[in-house]
Amino acid sequence: MSYNLLKGKRGIIFGALDENSIAWKTAERAHEEGAEFVLTNAPVALRMGTINTLAEKTNSEVIPADATKVEDLENLIEKSQEILGGKLDFVLHSIGMSINVRKGKHYTDQNYDWTHKGLDVSAMSFHKLMQTLYKKDAMNEWGSIVALTYMAAQRVFPDYNDMADNKAYLESVARSFGYFFGKDKKVRVNTISQSPTPTSAGQGVKGFTGFMNYAERMSPLGNATALECADYTLTLFSDLTKKVTLQNLFHDGGFSNMGVSQEIMEEMEE
Ligand SMILES: NC(=O)c1ccc[n+]([C@@H]2O[C@H](COP(=O)([O-])OP(=O)(O)OC[C@H]3O[C@@H](n4cnc5c(N)ncnc54)[C@H](O)[C@@H]3O)[C@@H](O)[C@H]2O)c1
Predict the structure, then answer these.
(1) Which residues line ligand 1 (CB under 6 A)?
(2) According to the lineage, what is the superkingdom (predicted)?
(3) pTM (whole model) above 0.90
(4) Of 31, 45, 151, 229, which has the most beta carbons under 10 Å away?
(5) Is residue 218 within 8 Å of 261, Cβ to Cβ?
């Protein structure tokens, strides 16, 4: 169902790799809600992925940008405003990557070059993105910036590895930069803390299936899907949430406030 929630709004969507990506679903839904946007991803991901299919479907252009490179971000933000014909109303940061996770390097045995790279891609890129938007004065008043995160930023999930630390940094940057964006430009900045979701990044985490099943059984509403995450993200881009900022918003079927569920108790008693 479409509500025209984003009619007339312009934005940039990072991170659509394939049709499972949360950013992919967000782009499809944003298009249905009347938004115009530019799609972007790292050059290497553009070569591997199928983003052109999404671009055609949503009538949008693709501009490559490595989110760790400020010059790429500058180019992206300038070109996007030219293509869309004005300042931006929304930006989605849907980017995550840990080489330690990918290569199965344990948290107690980090390769710090990889740790550094993962921090840059997954977290510092959010600061770089916001600093570039801020300096270029590229956001309209009452615009909205959202990044995706996971609850391992607050609680221990052993196999989430260094991504837990990256997400803690990301959430902190949302608050710290969100203050200046709010005060100086009337722009809101939030993070959405999403349930485990079967995407390329999600499935890279060791024991992901166990992780997902556990969360499913713990959550009174069950895990939130990528499409449901897209819907929630759109509400934050819409004019219906203008005074929501500096928040880390759990979108997890209730998981984050659970102690234990009946299903898990029954399993433990077997
Ligand atoms: N899947 C889950 O279980 C889950 C749960 C909570 C939060 N998240 C977060 O959601 C976001 C989106 O991930 P997803 O699950 O849709 O997986 P995904 O693999 O589809 O998306 C991750 C994206 O990051 C992009 N990326 C990597 N390096 C980049 C760089 N240098 N510059 C620009 N882009 C780069 C990838 O190309 C990819 O498109 C991530 O921040 C992830 O941590 C995912």
Answers:
(1) 14-15, 17, 21-23, 41-42, 45, 66-68, 94-97, 121, 148-150, 194, 196-197, 199-202
(2) Bacteria
(3) yes
(4) 229
(5) yes
